[in-house]
Amino acid sequence: MAFTIPENLHPDLMPLAWLIGTWRGKGKAEYPGMKSFNYAQEVSFNHDGQNYLNYFSRTWEIDDDNEIVKPHDAEVGFWRVRDKEVPYRDWETDRKST
Q1: Scanning 6, 36, 55, 57, which has the fewest C-beta atoms within 10 Å of its C-beta?
Q2: Is the pTM of this model over 0.85?
Q3: Rounded distance, CA 98 to CA 51, Å?
Q4: Measuring CA to CA, which residue among 12, 7, 92, 93 is closest to residue 53?
Q5: Higher pLDDT residue, 7 or 41?
Q6: What DSSP string runs through the chain?
């Protein structure tokens, strides 16, 4: 997949440049002790010229017809590169379901 390096991207973020944008997908969550469920997720990465990416993710429980049943959780935070190669995440999560 070809992409364009955004203008004003901090040099430390070059290894993460391919993430910039909005990503969407669906899946099935299965955790021990919890009923499995289908979900949809949207993740966005953007930058403002600093040495981190802004990160926002949200998920919803969906039914068999891919219709949203209820919000599941949301996360916001930052992704950075440490030591020029290791991605580091710093984020907060808001859990809507238990």
Answers
A1: 36
A2: no
A3: 35
A4: 12
A5: 41
A6: ----PPTT--GGGGGGGGG-EEEEEEEEE--TTS--EEEEEEEEEE--SSSSEEEEEEEEEE-TTS-EEEEEEEEEEEEEEETTTEEEEEEEEEE---
